[in-house]
């Protein structure tokens, strides 16, 4: 902490600090990260604004004034909390002036100031808890869904990593701004080719020379492309897949802490004809078998993974995603032993983003069946074939 060598701030502060122990000042400086705790300010208080000279420009402010007649003062609490760190804020001169201004005392209430202090100190604690091994390379992939173009900002992705990890340099961008929609065949040809090319160019070299230890995958795209993306990463590399949540028009990629696992149900076909295997994945919506039979005929074997009440919020926490991976892996094992080698599995997904990417990741390139993935088309409200994963002749 720089010495008080400035003019008025130092004099004012000395008066206040007379009643505050040196240890408390030190603790407040550390908890505030040496920055103004007023919401949105964050000004560094160890230097002069313009000259950057090393000067202590901090003000220590009382939330409940030290004197009972001061701003937010109270005859009992003022003397009691005069030197208490919970009642002190580290502020720049301007914001100290604001919060002690009599005309503004009603705006800067005790609750409001306490909340500002808490938010600032929580944030400082989060970012200073980061350790170097926690670096993670962000990989971003967006593609338009129906007519909707998708945007994700780098800032919201970085926030989703904290506090367990932090971003390792620039984001790897795999998106292609395709002029086509997923109802057009050309969309799938171009997107698939582009995604494979971008992955081979931008991600593979890092994985091969082991320069990146951990990846964080953020993707928003039609479901077959999400599965393809996952299959390119496979389960070999340390990677975490994120899930977008939308609440009150706000996007949030942060995982919720822990949530009760939904009851995933794995259902076998009523009658096993051992001819055309289908996997119906009904998590975010219910896939009616009739819709599948309309495309593949009614002599196919429909295996199903579903939850009791499919909904778009079915996966909010990592433990729920892990539970899905477990049941999906078991299902793939069981299905493949019922069909001759090389038989393609027809996959009809209605699942959240993260479940699609993880499904792709758990496909074993050599041991699993080729998978023909169908897309639910917003426009036609029907499934259409989109692309094939794990086709040994085609995948590179
Ligand atoms: Zn400030």
Q: Can you tell me the CATH topology of the largest domain?
A: Rossmann fold
- State the end-to-end distance: 57 Å
Tell me the strand percentage band.
Answer: 15-25%
The secondary-structure class comes to alpha/beta
Radius of gyration: 28 Å
The helix-strand sequence is HHEHEHHEHEEHHEHEEEEEHEHEHEE
The name of the CATH architecture of the largest domain is: 3-Layer(aba) Sandwich
Structural features, described:
Helix 11 packs across helix 12. The chain is 33% helix and 18% strand. With 396 residues, it is α/β, with parallel strands linked by helices. The N and C termini lie far apart (57 Å). It has 3 domains: 121 residues, no CATH class; 121 residues; 125 residues, Rossmann fold. The structure holds zinc ion.
């Amino acid at each position: 902490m720089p010495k008080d060598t400035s003019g008025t701030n130092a004099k004012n502060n000395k008066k206040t600090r007379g009643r505050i122990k040196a240890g408390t000042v030190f603790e407040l400086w550390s908890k505030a990260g040496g920055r103004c705790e007023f919401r949105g300010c964050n000004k560094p208080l160890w230097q002069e604004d313009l000259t950057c000279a090393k000067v202590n420009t901090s003000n220590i402010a009382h939330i409940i004034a030290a004197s009972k007649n001061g701003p937010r003062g109270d005859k009992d609490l003022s003397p009691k909390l005069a030197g208490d760190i919970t009642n002190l804020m580290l502020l720049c001169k301007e914001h100290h002036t604001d919060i002690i201004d009599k005309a503004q005392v009603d705006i800067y209430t005790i609750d409001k100031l306490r909340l500002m202090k808490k938010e600032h100190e929580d944030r400082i604690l989060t970012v200073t808890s980061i350790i170097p091994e926690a670096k993670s390379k962000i990989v971003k992939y967006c593609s338009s869904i129906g007519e909707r173009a998708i945007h994700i900002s780098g800032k919201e992705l970085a926030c989703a990593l904290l506090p367990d990890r932090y971003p390792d340099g620039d984001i790897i961008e795999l998106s292609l701004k395709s002029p086509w929609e997923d109802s057009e065949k050309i969309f799938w040809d171009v997107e698939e080719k582009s995604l494979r090319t971008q992955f081979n160019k931008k991600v593979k070299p890092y994985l091969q020379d082991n320069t990146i230890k951990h990846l964080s995958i953020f993707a928003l795209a039609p479901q077959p492309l999400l599965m393809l993306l996952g299959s390119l990463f496979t389960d070999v590399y340390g990677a975490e897949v994120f899930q977008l949540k939308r609440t009150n028009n706000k996007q949030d990629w942060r995982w919720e802490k822990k949530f009760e696992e939904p009851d995933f149900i794995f259902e076998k076909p009523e009658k096993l004809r051992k001819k055309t295997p289908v996997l119906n994945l009904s998590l975010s919506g219910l896939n009616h078998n009739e819709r599948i039979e309309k495309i593949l005929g009614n002599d196919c074997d429909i295996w199903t993974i579903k939850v009791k009440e499919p909904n778009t919020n079915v996966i909010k926490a990592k433990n729920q995603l892990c539970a899905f991976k477990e049941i999906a892996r078991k299902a793939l094992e069981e299905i493949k032993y019922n069909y001759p080698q090389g038989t393609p599995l027809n996959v009809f997904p209605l699942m959240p983003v993260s479940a699609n990417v993880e499904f792709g990741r758990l496909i074993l390139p050599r041991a699993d069946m080729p998978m023909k993935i169908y897309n639910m088309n917003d426009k036609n409200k029907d499934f259409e074939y989109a692309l094939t994963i794990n086709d040994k002749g085609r995948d590179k």
